[in-house]
Amino acid sequence: MSSALILLAPFLVVAKPSWQETAMLGNGPSYLNAGDQKAIVGYGCSNGRGNSAKARALEKLKSKVTGFVLSDESLLDRAGMSSQVSVNVDEMTLSDYFLRGNETCVSGMIQVDLLFDAEDGDSQDFVWDQDNESFIVTVTGEGEAQPEKGVSARANAEKDALQRAMRIAIGEALASDEAMQGYLSGKSDSVKEWLFEQFISANLSGVNQWVTLSRNSVGVNKEEVTLQVEIALRDIDSIEESIAAYIGYPSIFVSSKGESAKLELVKQLSSMDLRLTDNRAEASLIYEVDSRVVSFEGLGQLDLNVTFKDRWGNVYGHWRNTPSLISLPLESDDLTLKLIKVHFGSHTGSVKLRASVIDSLFQMVNVGGPIREVFFNSSELSKSELLPTVLTEIDDLKIIDQRQDKGRSVFRLRFLGSNKALIHSMNVAIEGAYPEDFVAGRVSDGYRISY
């Protein structure tokens, strides 16, 4: 922030400490030389006002700092442990809460030496159980009863606490994810928040177990619980898999004139747990690989491009390698194969490719999800002028166009969700509007649905 002063309340102006100005620079925590000891500074913000917004802002600050710590190998080496670090709010110097646009924010500073608490394990906020690849965190949640839904205050408090635990765990996962860090570096706060929330909702099943440490009434029909939660890290999906799940796991076909390039890309996509198919006719998405050897100063280099598009030709992103990464004599045996393996196998190339895949999936979210074709064979349905109106009332559904094909009405539409969810929503809407002509929909292949 450019100003050295923050308006905290009417007629009250407080000078910001110099470390607080540093904390607000950049997108994440950073090091600060505080006296003789190095310190880490950072900030957290949350939309809204009041105590709940303050609590979320503080939680984000702690998540950012712990993620920063766990991603710094030299810092962990100093602690003499792989990733068992204590970051307690009581040990962190906090600023007053302040407003930034529609957000409530707080800055924090903690000296590096206060991070390590190897002797007293009970004081740790979380620990990593590396043998079982699990993450253990102590969190507090609040909940209010919803009698109309038959949900108790305790159930909602536990749900809130579990979401907080997963939020912290995923904060660590994202902080150590190089591809995600590169991808997010140029994205807006709203995009980052959407991805973070989607990552959390897609991974709540990663909670192994929890123990209730305390339970208190905090008002009429309200409860507060403190849980110790164990999260199975191996069960946490990648961010690309989480986005793919959100848009219904569209099937992907890899197209390439060269078999070697195709196999290497398939290998990369398989490691991301995306849904692949060998049948182009069933694929919603077509990832096209174009690879060729070019001559540069008498040596051979590989020019490699991947285009992420759907079967209708809509392009959602590209990835291109860096040809100068490796040059080999043009007369080398298996020149193309060697170059392909190096480029797909390089760490930098893999990270950038994965970031491009994430971006292409997110672009599909932005336009409303993958395209499906829906065929209405019933003569009454296909002739109905009200059918488009019935379909557009379905949440997350966008009609692209409509045509007649051999007496059938064919709709191309976008939908954020799986084919199963789309058919369920359409079944409910169509049966309500046309009870006498209703026939349940079925999936013909990966992207076609028939009625």
Q: Which CATH architecture of the largest domain?
A: 2-Layer Sandwich
Mean pLDDT: 78
Q: Which percent range fits the helix content?
A: 25-40%
CATH topology heading of the largest domain: Double Stranded RNA Binding Domain
Helix/strand/pairing class, anyone? Answer: alpha+beta
Provide an overview of this structure:
The protein has 13 helices and 21 strands. It is α+β, with helices and mostly antiparallel strands. It has 4 domains: 1-120, no CATH class; 125-236, Dodecin subunit-like (2-Layer Sandwich); 246-366, Double Stranded RNA Binding Domain, CATH 3.30.160; 371-450, Alpha-Beta Plaits, CATH 3.30.70. Strands 3, 4, 5, 6 and 7 form a 5-stranded antiparallel sheet that branches. Strands 12, 13, 14, 15 and 16 form a 5-stranded mixed sheet that branches. A hairpin with a 2-residue loop joins strand 6 (98-100) and strand 7 (103-111). The termini are far apart. The model is unreliable at 1-17, 79-86 and 117-132 (pLDDT under 50).
Q: Helices and strands in order, then pairings?
A:
Elements: E1 5-9, E2 12-15, H1 18-23, E3 30-34, E4 37-47, H2 51-70, H3 73-79, E5 93-94, E6 98-100, E7 103-111, E8 126-129, E9 134-144, H4 153-175, H5 178-184, H6 189-202, E10 207-219, E11 222-232, H7 239-246, E12 252-256, H8 259-271, E13 285-296, E14 299-310, E15 315-320, E16 328-329, H9 335-345, H10 347-366, E17 371-376, H11 379-383, H12 387-392, E18 397-405, E19 408-415, H13 419-433, E20 442-443, E21 448-450
Parallel strand pairs: 12-13, 17-21
Antiparallel strand pairs: 1-2, 3-4, 4-7, 5-7, 6-7, 8-9, 9-11, 10-11, 13-14, 14-15, 14-16, 17-19, 18-19, 20-21
